[in-house]
Amino acid sequence: xxxxxxxxxxxxxKKFLEQFLPNVIENTDATLxxxxxxxxxSTDGSVEFMKQAFPDIRLIVNDFNGGxxxxxxxxxxxxDAEYYVLLNSDIEVTPHWIEPVVExxxxxxxxxxxxxxxxxxxxxxxxxxxxxxGGYIDQYGYPFCxxxxxxxxxxxxxxxxxxxxxxxxxGACLFVRAELYLQHGGLDDSFFAHMEEIDFCxxxxxxxxxxxxxxxxxxxxxxxxxxxxxxxxxxxLNFRNNLSLLYKNLPSGRVFWTLFYRVLLDWVAAxxxxxxxxxxxxxxxxxxxxxxxRRIPSLKKVRQQHPHGRVGExxxxxxxxxxxxxxxxxxxxxxxxxxxxx
Length: 342
Known about the structure:
By secondary structure, the protein is α/β, with parallel strands linked by helices. It is built from ten helices and 13 strands.
């Protein structure tokens, strides 16, 4: 058994495997890590391509496309390693990208998950949307990152090169302790895709573990490889899953009022979509809310089964207000005293 298993989940991403898998192989120490490709019932010839072009790479073929969450859960149950690396197929890694993260996690057993610095493949001076230099959420569940507030991507000038505890680590390149992943059910299957890594990281925090960003490792990410950035389906999943992770993980005394205000903010977002001609996104928000309401009985059972309440590194303000109304575009402009320590 190797110490690390780099597991790439593929769904109709043959072009990305052809482009990026040789880079991953070249920059991954074979004595340290195995590389596994898990295919999510692709229909673009990915499986045949892998068998012909990379016969020495282990291939796991899932029976159906269960999305990011179920796809990884099915695959990782078949992989033995101390650490899993959940790696998107559209990522270019760099030399020695694994070693700094593993050294950090080996030195601190309380770190459950960690990510490298994520930069844009198309503009290598910029942080990439999905993760940047570590993720956070505000008190209403809106995610943002060091290096990325909503659509504003900062130029990487080394300003976030400190190894730091964060709220969540991106699923685009997620290092996680295999024992914890398997013991606590991995990603939430019901999420399908989007925000499942935030939910997982929050669950780990509620169990007393920490989440880190290790910028001594860096990778370059294309992003939006499976769903386009402007997608009603993506809007639906983001809004539905965001409400679910809040309900599952918030302290009991904060659930009602947080969700009350979040519902109001979501209605504002829906009306904004409609006013901008985004009828599909408008209906996606409405459908997401009704899907969440139907889920509440099952989510309530989940809350009863797991501890909840640790919100350390949460931003105790409204990032929407700070960004759009107060004009804060950079993470460094946020008041560090407004991040919870508990």
